[in-house]
Amino acid sequence: MADAKSYERARDFRANLNPPEARLWLSLRGRRLDGLKFRRQHPIGPYILDFYCAAAKLAVEVDGAIHDVEDQIRHDQRRTTWLAQRGVRVIRLRPADVKDEIEGVLGFIGRVALARLGTESPPPSRP
Questions:
Q1: Mind listing the pLDDT tens digit of every residue in the chain (127 residues)?
Q2: In angstroms, rounded to a whole number, what is the distance separating the alpha carbons of residues 49 and 67?
Q3: Helix (H, G, I), strand (E, B) or coil at 52
Q4: Among 18, 33, 37, 95, which one is least packed by beta carbons within 10 Å?
Q5: In degrees, to the nearest 5, what angle opens at C-alpha 45 toward C-alphas 112 and 16?
Q6: Are 42 and 36 in contact (CB under 8 A)?
Q7: Is 21 helix (H, G, I), strand (E, B) or coil?
C-alpha cells in the first residue's frame, strides 16, 4: 500500500507528464486500448508507475536516458523485482519509440496485457 506522500507525489507527476508520457496517455486513457483501463502515475508501495493496468497487473514505464546510468539501472532492477514479487509485470519503453512508433508500442502493450489476462480479444466494453 502506498503512503500519503506517494499519493501526493503521484498527483504532482500526473500534472507534469513529459511529452512521450502525454502522447502515450492520450492513447491509453478512457479504455482506448482494447478496452483496458490504465491509470497514470499510479502509486504502488514505495513506487510510482508511469502507467498501470490493474486487471492485467501490468506496469508501463517510459524510460529516458537517465535509466541508462548504472545507479539508476540497479534501482530499476530492484523496483522490477519488488513489483514482480507482487505479480506485476513491467514493460519499459524508450521515449523515441513512443514518439516515432506509437502504433507498434500500443500493439505491444495490448498484446502483453491481453496475454496476462489470458485472452486474445479485448475485454467487453462497459455500457
A1: 555 665 565 455 555 678 899 999 999 999 999 999 999 999 998 889 999 999 999 999 998 646 556 776 788 899 999 999 999 999 999 999 999 999 999 999 999 999 999 976 655 544 3
A2: 14
A3: strand
A4: 18
A5: 75
A6: no
A7: helix
Grid cell locating 31: 479504455
Q: Which long-range contacts (CB under 8 A, 24 or more apart) does 13-21 make?
A: 13/41, 13/48, 14/40, 14/41, 17/41, 18/62, 18/64, 18/95, 19/95, 19/99, 20/62, 20/64, 20/95, 20/98, 20/99, 21/50, 21/51, 21/62, 21/98
Neighbours of 52 (CB within 10 A): 23
- Which amino acid would we find at residue 31? R
Reference 28, options 88, 113, 87; nearest CA is 113
